[in-house]
Design goal:
The strands form five sheets. A four-stranded antiparallel beta sheet has the order 3-15-6-10. It has 648 residues and is α+β, with helices and mostly antiparallel strands. The longest helix has 37 residues. The two termini are 52 Å apart. The protein has 23 helices and 15 strands.
């Protein structure tokens, strides 16, 4: 009895208003103290990072060496200056400080939410027990990995529980719509179909950090974590959304539970809207847990030493910054706008059209029916254009080719630094071979690089490399112009193998937009499944919705596959089955073109900008489809004979 009485007293204490106020002030005070201590330690005059920043600033102000043109904004001097400026931006720690601030604020907000839910002492006790058990299992039993997994699952599970309770409070208003939504949340906590997915999701997020190879460069670890965590979390939450959306509608009809709901009375539009709102709230809670976990662990990885560093941000060879750190901060944890090398001509170019006509005429001498049909003619044009552009990106030994990157005006106006990325292919890309390539930017200096074949390489440039018309001209030589060495084979670049990008916005803003787009996709999928569930059974609803989901997610691959898919044989005759398959695939690709074109996870992993314009366009299209499906669901639901359907 004494133990029970003590528990009741503690519960009364944690639910009292004075305790909540005092505990909240303590949490805020600890958060402020922690962040202030971090800032002081980072910016202390005697710290290693402060010393390196001072050296970089001194190097940036140093005059050009004798014999070097200080006013030349290109060539080797441009790259050195840009590297110093990039190192200065990274070491000054604006982005790192923001990450620590956001992480501290997120943890503090969650702790305050726990306190005001009346669970402060309960969660504190559970935390102590979890840490104690983990310490015992990890240190005494030698199962450190299992102990970390247990702590991770416990923290994520507690966070999910708190957010679910907060979501329930947000839906506690009057009206049948919110009542249906609250019931959906309560059902989600009890239903086996949802609990299985939630447990799998939490275990995946907790286990994924332990699968990373600590021997890999830091940039690869961060990319791998972002790819598998964001992509895996979205797919798990998406499957949960599909199954739960179907079950919450169809099983209520099958089990006659809906009789009690619609006789309140609850209008059809309120019932459908409440179901959708409840499922979307569940998805939002899960995505909030996932997004916060992914963000915080990414920031943790960011604070770890990169390849070539003695400690985080301190290069071991005395350089301003290590290559691994520079690539991570400027190309992965970034929001870059990529510009590919422009093709030398368009398909509508008169000279190209004339060459196509001549080619078709020559082929007709041997095959009279060659290119007679519009589809066959378009295929010939596409094949010739692809061959011509591939030949343009191939450079023979000792020869050179000029490539243009247009549309760089915004980067020039903003003074944004540039990153030139390239991938060289030569022969069979043997791993024991390299190619020496010379790059000349806007004819104002040359840079020679020895490149590993089939791998990505980067060169940093200043905005001075951009011409007045917003174009960067790059001449690529298949040779080393400094020594006269010529590569023995032709080098080539894939379609996306030459790229110049510039930063626009922050990684964190890009991360937030990506998560919002993923949530919008889940909202669309939920309404789709609910609409289908109004007139079919649970298995059929799952089959249809999963099929549509897979078609939407794979439409991007369909677009690439259709470019190389032929519907005619060698004699130019149409093949029926291939034509039908192409027609269906083209229709699917066009329907979900906007959905697939967003590519939120790919943009996040590659550090590419998901702009507000792209996000707004995708949100508008998916929003319209969601409204249309909602109208269809309400119309179908009104026509249902629920008593007859539920009886049998």
């Amino acid at each position: 009895m004494r133990l029970r009485e003590a528990g009741a007293r503690l519960d009364a204490v944690q639910k009292s208003r004075p305790f909540k106020i005092v505990a909240s002030l303590v949490v805020v005070g600890l958060a402020v103290a922690f962040f202030a201590s971090y800032l002081v330690a980072r910016q202390a005059p005697g710290s290693e990072i402060a010393r390196m920043i001072a050296e970089i600033e001194a190097a940036g102000e140093a005059p050009a060496s004798e014999g070097e043109d200080a006013g030349t904004p290109a060539g080797d001097r441009t790259i050195v200056d840009t590297g110093l400026r990039a190192a200065q931006r990274v070491l000054q720690g604006g982005s790192v400080v923001q990450g620590v601030a956001i992480g501290t604020a997120a943890v503090s907000a969650l702790a305050i939410a726990v306190i005001w839910l009346g669970l402060g002492l309960t969660y504190l006790g559970l935390s102590v027990v979890a840490v104690g058990v983990a310490f015992g299992v990890g240190r005494l039993a030698g199962l450190e990995g299992l102990a970390r997994l247990g702590v991770g699952v416990t923290v994520l599970g507690a966070s999910f529980t708190v957010l679910i309770r907060l979501a329930g409070l947000l839906l506690s208003g009057p009206g049948p719509t919110l009542a249906v939504a609250r019931n959906v949340l309560a059902e989600a906590v009890r239903a086996k179909v949802s609990l299985v997915f939630v447990v799998v999701l939490l275990v995946l997020l907790a286990a994924l950090p332990q699968w990373l190879d600590p021997q890999q460069p830091l940039r690869y670890r961060v990319q791998s974590f972002l790819q598998y965590s964001s992509g895996g979390a979205f797919w798990i939450v998406a499957m949960l959304t599909l199954f739960f959306s179907a079950s919450t509608v169809t099983l209520e009809q099958r089990d006659r539970v809906i009789w009690q709901t619609v006789t309140k009375p609850v209008a059809s539009w309120q019932y459908i809207l409440g179901k959708w709102l409840g499922v979307v709230t569940l998805a939002a809670v899960l995505m909030a847990v996932c997004a916060t976990t992914i963000f915080l662990f990414t920031e943790y990885l960011r604070s770890q030493p990169a390849a070539g560093e003695d400690s985080a941000y301190v290069a071991s060879d005395g350089a301003a910054i290590s290559d691994d750190r520079l690539v991570l901060e400027t190309q992965i944890l970034a929001a870059r706008v990529p510009i590919l090398a422009a093709n030398p001509f368009e398909k509508s170019d008169p000279e190209f059209i004339e060459a196509v006509e001549k080619y078709i005429e020559d082929q007709k001498l041997r095959e009279p029916s060659f290119g007679d049909t519009p589809s066959r003619r378009q295929e010939v044009i596409d094949d010739l254009y692809k061959s011509a552009t591939d030949a343009y990106r191939a450079i023979e030994p000792g020869r050179a080719e000029r490539f243009s990157f247009r549309g760089m005006g915004p980067a020039k106006r903003d003074g944004s630094p540039l990153t030139f990325r390239y991938r060289v292919d030569m022969g069979s890309n043997r791993p024991d071979q390299t190619a020496k390539v010379t790059f000349v930017f806007n004819r104002s200096g040359q840079i020679v690089r020895e490149c590993g074949l089939g791998n990505w390489h980067t060169i940093s440039l200043t905005p001075a490399a951009i011409g007045e018309d917003g174009t960067v001209e790059v001449i690529v030589y298949n040779a080393d112009l400094e020594t006269g060495f010529v590569n023995p084979l032709t080098i080539s670049f894939p379609r996306d193998g030459l790229e110049i990008s510039y930063s626009k916005g922050s990684y964190r803003g890009n991360f937030l937009r990506v998560m919002l787009v993923l949530l919008l996709k889940l909202a669309f999928l939920s309404m789709l499944t609910i609409c289908v569930s109004t007139f079919v059974s649970f298995p059929v609803a799952c089959l249809v919705s999963i099929g549509v989901f897979l078609m939407a997610e794979s439409s991007g691959f369909l677009k690439e596959a259709l470019e190389n898919y032929s519907t005619v044989d060698r004699e130019g005759k149409m093949m029926v089955l291939q034509s039908v398959a192409s027609w269906i695939a083209t229709g699917v690709q066009r329907i979900f073109d906007i959905y697939a074109g967003l590519k939120p996870t790919t943009r996040l992993v590659d550090g590419r900008l998901l702009s507000f314009g792209t996000m707004s366009g995708g949100m508008a299209v998916l929003g319209v489809w969601t409204v249309v499906l909602y109208g269809a669901a309400v119309g179908i639901f009104r026509k249902r004979e629920l008593a007859t359907y539920s009886g049998q």
